[in-house]
């Protein structure tokens, strides 16, 4: 049975043989108790990421060594189940040969229109009246060195907005939420300027923390330093290059970046110290949480009333 998208595979397919075209994105070689090599594989298309076992790794070792990950493969697999989750047991593996498919066809993409998102960023930029903050955003977001990455990278590796254009999508959600709260609570224009700036920059350094899609891992810099430090450090350096940048605004923007996770145990080295930083934290959390829940609900293929437990939220969700 040929499967057009991995999302189609559900528990009703357990013990069935399927065929599919997939993108291999990760591979870990392991050794069983009887000292036979096998591989844990991560395969995906635009609809879903799935784990797979290749018990006959030694048969395909030459192929996988020569091609590596981030290539398209034709697979035949037996659908199984492990710890309540559907898992593929690979029976046959071939490199896909053909020009009708490319790697980008297998990468999840934001459902929002790219041009509309770019225009959205520019609209928020135009609402900033402080010239030193506009200059900061010009140098960090809208310059040729960074805009392409900022507009194409994911916002996370797994939990939320982990798709092409995800960082820009996530940033626009936060700015939209923040604008609503700012208007409701009658923030001053200067406070809104700072809130927009820290909203655009809070996750900016994920362009350094993550590898380029379709790779799902962290860069060495990301592993060693993380996006919060990288972002604050780079922002501080750029601020110091802008003549007359107010000291107070430096502190407020940097606190917003450093504190946007909201809690020390969640990875922020400091807590939010301004109303703008507190708003940013809650907007960031709402954007990530809601996207995480909706994406998880969309991945469920059975007819159960509740989802499985979403690990990062600690509970199940009602699907109707």
From TrEMBL:
Matches recorded under SUPFAM superfamilies: HD-domain/PDEase-like
Statement: the UniProt record of this protein carries the keyword Hydrolase: yes
GO biological process: rRNA 3'-end processing
Entry keyword set: Hydrolase
Domain annotation HD: ranges: 169-287
GO molecular function annotation: hydrolase activity
InterPro entries in the record: HD/PDEase_dom, HD_domain, NA-bd_OB-fold, YhaM_exoribonuc/phosphodiest
Protein name: 3'-5' exoribonuclease
Provenance organism: Serpentinicella alkaliphila
Source species taxonomy: Bacteria, Bacillati, Bacillota, Clostridia, Peptostreptococcales
């Amino acid at each position: 049975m040929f499967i057009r998208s991995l999302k189609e595979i559900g528990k009703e397919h357990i013990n069935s043989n399927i065929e599919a075209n997939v993108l291999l994105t990760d591979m870990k070689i392991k050794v069983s108790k009887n000292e036979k090599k096998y591989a844990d594989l991560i395969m995906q298309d635009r609809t879903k990421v799935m784990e797979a076992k290749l018990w006959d790794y030694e048969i395909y070792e030459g192929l996988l060594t020569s091609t590596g990950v981030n290539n398209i493969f034709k697979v035949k697999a037996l659908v199984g189940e492990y710890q309540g989750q559907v898992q593929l047991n690979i029976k046959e593996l071939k490199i896909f040969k053909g020009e009708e498919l490319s790697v980008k066809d297998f990468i999840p993409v934001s459902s929002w229109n790219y041009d509309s998102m770019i225009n959205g960023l520019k609209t928020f930029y135009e609402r900033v009246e402080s010239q030193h903050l506009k200059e900061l955003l010009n140098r960090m977001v809208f310059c040729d060195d960074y805009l392409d990455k900022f507009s194409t990278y994911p916002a996370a590796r797994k939990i939320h907005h982990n798709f092409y254009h995800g960082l820009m999508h996530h940033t626009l959600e936060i700015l939209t939420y923040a604008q609503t709260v700012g208007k409701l609570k009658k923030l001053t224009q200067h406070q809104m300027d700072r809130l927009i700036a820290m909203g655009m920059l809070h996750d900016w350094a994920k362009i350094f923390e993550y590898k380029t899609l379709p790779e799902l891992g962290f860069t060495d810099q990301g592993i060693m330093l993380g996006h919060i430090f990288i972002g604050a450090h780079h922002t501080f350096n750029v601020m110091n290059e802008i003549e007359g940048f107010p000291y107070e605004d430096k502190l407020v923007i940097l606190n917003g970046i450093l504190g946007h996770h909201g809690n020390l145990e969640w990875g922020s080295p400091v807590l939010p110290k301004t109303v703008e930083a507190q708003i940013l934290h809650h907007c960031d959390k709402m954007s990530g949480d809601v996207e995480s829940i909706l994406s998880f609900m969309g991945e469920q293929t059975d007819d159960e009333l509740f989802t499985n437990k979403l690990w990062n939220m600690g509970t199940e969700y009602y699907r109707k």
